[in-house]
Amino acid sequence: MHCSQLSIQILQRVRYRWIKPLWVRRALRAALKRFGKTQSGITVVITDDSEMARLHRRFLKKRGPTDVMAFDLAETRPRHRKKTALEGEVIVSAETARREAKDRGHSPAAELTLYALHGTLHLLGFRDGKSSDAQAMHRVEDEILTEIGLGKIFGSFQK
Question: Residue 139: which pLDDT band, with cuts at 50, 70 and 90?
Answer without folding.
Answer: very high
